[in-house]
What we know:
Blueprint: H1 17-22, H2 43-52, H3 55-60, H4 62-75, E1 81-82, H5 89-96, E2 98-101, E3 105-108, H6 115-119, H7 126-129, H8 131-144, E4 150-155, H9 157-166, H10 174-182, H11 184-208, E5 212-217, H12 225-242, E6 246-247, E7 250-251, E8 254-258, H13 265-269, E9 275-277, H14 284-291, E10 296-298, H15 310-324, E11 330-331, H16 344-357
Amino acid sequence: MILKPAQKHKSLLKNDRFLRALLRQPVESTPVWMMRQAGRYLPEYRASREHAGSFMDLCRNADFACEVTLQPLRRFDLDAAILFSDILTIPDAMGQGLYFETGEGPKFRKTVRTEKDVNALPVVQGETDLDYVMNAVTTIRRALNGSVPLIGFSGSPWTLATYMVEGGSSKDFRQVKTFMLKQPEAMHRLLDKLAQSVISYLNAQIKAGAQAVQIFDTWGGVLNEPCYQEFSLGYMRQITTGLIREHEGRPVPVIMFTKGGGQWLESMADTGADCLGLDWTTDIGLARKRVGDRVALQGNMDPNMLFAPARKIREEVGRILRSFGPGSGHIFNLGHGISQFADPEHAKVFVDAVHELSPSFHG
Length: 363
């Protein structure tokens, strides 16, 4: 049963630094969270996953999803929680048969390779087709009790399409690019169905209690300029236009993250997103000069920096803070998800360094 959230979590946020920074409002220090902060690098997560039985069992059980969402917040002084789920829940709800094999990543029992395959796909209704995710959002939001904001998320239409056409992860994206180039009309229909599904899914998360949302365009960077604009960015613009942007009396910021997309920041800033995520290949200071005050920026330490000595981690945090410079509009994060092999103690050094070093950059 989905809990009706509207009257259940009106408590004031004890720490809204993350939400203020997304809106480029003054903050006393730079907020920080980590992509994939609830994950295999934590021994308590591995224990929970073993108890649950499988990754998807972990996602589909609201109590388990809540527990692993809260685990990193117990260890680290993070400024936001992120819903524990997977970007591939939408294709799974479309009937593609998502499953996971140890050491091989996600796979689908069905692939999308023809116009007929696209036409057979339904548009996902977030509140009903993915009710287990909404139940998790409500459960997590209640458990947080206003301590920090909760981030909801989805994969971008292009990224979801790559998995659906390839049937899983890919190194060369041969199948999805062939489909895009040989059957562009069918690809556009697929992407439009996915965009409609993402809008419904994220709006349902917002209604259930998510206070900000992130669109993960993990594979947008494998496209060239015209294809990125046509097959990825255009559909993310459609999503930002269709999202609920105010709920519970305050704005709901939208973060857009294209891995490998640093060359398109100006176009991304024109989509209506409040914040752009950066991977580690783009200098954040140069990015700030390019987009000005149109959007906040999130990022962007190389996740592999967490394998360095503590002193080096602190030095890198300082370097990135100096590169961004004084003022608000910076949410510190890794440039991609934390590695499953990272030492949790090094993650703590990273988070603590942000809070210790960043106040001097805020008036």
